[in-house]
Amino acid sequence: EVQLVESGGGLVKPGGSLRVSCAASGFTFSDVWMNWVRQGPGKGLEWVGRIKSKTDGGTADYAAPVKGRFTMSRDDSRNMLYLQMNSLKIEDTAVYYCARRGGMDVWGKGTTVTVSS
Amino acid sequence: QSVLTQPPSVSAAPGQKVTISCSGSSSNIGDNKNYVSWYQHLPGTAPKLLIYDNNKRPSGIPDRFSGSKSGTSATLGITRLQTGDEADYYCGTWDTSLSAWVFGGGTKLTVL
Question: For chain A: N or C, fewer Cβ within 10 A?
Fold first, then answer.
């Protein structure tokens, strides 16, 4: 069964850092591009960024609001996707989802990140 | 303010049909290199892909759901509405100018 499971969310103070993870199973993780998408309270879905497969260069693209603060990485040997979030702001409070492939055909259930003093 | 514009809400009775529009520009929907996807999202659950590549349905998605694209707009159609279809629906595509994926603001479907 194809599955994505996010973890690592929590409460962090403004200016702090947090790393969330996404464990993939049921497919060849190394072959696919992966995305992070978030949904703030009362808001719609917002794309955070994507990371390409190593075959396609392994580079990442980011949405403007998080560029320079967030970093995506992947460990293909462990089938893991990561999102390192630094200099967190209150407006980063959201449920963070990982999603498979460019068209986002499979999603996890999300992990909640709360930025508050 | 989302790059893609959707109506905030739509409603219809069970058994009826509804359409949800998604309006963009020449750098996203209007760019023929970019394909539109549609997602269904119930709060607290994982979003589900309904339509990809403008009009294709993933395995397991009933043919009550359909997608189309024309110019800088796309449309999701849902026929034979069921109460279980009540959810938020989002369109999404790549924006060539922004070099970013963009979502519509979402449309809340109410099945009266």
Answer: N
Residues of chain B positioned with their CB less than 8 A from the CB of A63? 100
CA–chain centroid gap for B94, Å, is: 14
Query: Can you read off the two tokens belonging to residue B41?
Result: 């999202």
A contact residues 16-75, partner B, Cβ 8 Å cutoff: 35, 37, 44-47, 50, 61-64
- Taking only the tens place, the pLDDT of each residue in B68-96 is 999 999 999 999 999 999 999 999 999 99
Report the alpha-carbon angle B99-B101-B105, nearest 5.
Answer: 130
Q: Which amino acid does the sequence have at A6?
A: E
* Average pLDDT score over residue span A97-111: 95
d(CA B43, CA B40): 10
